[in-house]
Amino acid sequence: MSLSDEAPGADLIEFERAISMPVASVGLTTAALAEALKVAHINLDDKEAVAGLSLLSTLGMITADAGAFRVPTPRPLLLRITRYLDGAATSITHGANLPDGLDDTRRQHFADILAQDADGIRALANIDDGDTPTLWRTPNPR
Question: How far is residue 1's CA from residue 10's CA, in Å, rounded to a whole number?
Fold first, then answer.
């Protein structure tokens, strides 16, 4: 994958929506972005927080356009989200401040979940055969 796959400068609302995301995948993606935004916010990185908020807003607008249980989504948006999540996971691994409610004993687990979400979204973005992807993790393990 290269940065050009993320279609820099493109209006993602108007971009071809070639990936059919199940609603549950949109939910996991939204939750992962929110957690990564906490990392940017708690570490006072306004530029990263604004970038994450833009991704979240775009995903929300695209989801609002969908009228069924699948959300047609632009591949570049998913790739940008994976890069954002990977960045948050890396910063947590390298000692960034943790969001409220997480203690240091959960640091690596938190980073691993963000990386797992990035991998799952990346796999979804790279499906070529039109098959319905499975969720990459259980949203609320009990």
Answer: 17
Secondary structure of the chain as H, E, C letters: CCHHHHCCCCCCCCCCCCEEEEHHHHHHHHHHHHHHHHHHHHCCCHHHHHHHHHHHHHHHHHHHHCCCCEEEECHHHHHHHHHHHHHHHHHHHCCCCCCCCCCHHHHHHHHHHHHHHHHHHHHHHCCCCCCCCCCCCCCCCC
Considering the entire predicted model, what is its pTM?
A: 0.88
Going along the chain from its start, the domains and CATH numbers come out as: 18-125 (1.20.1270)
> What are the pLDDT digits (tens) for 72-123?
999 999 999 999 999 999 999 999 999 989 999 999 999 999 999 999 999 9
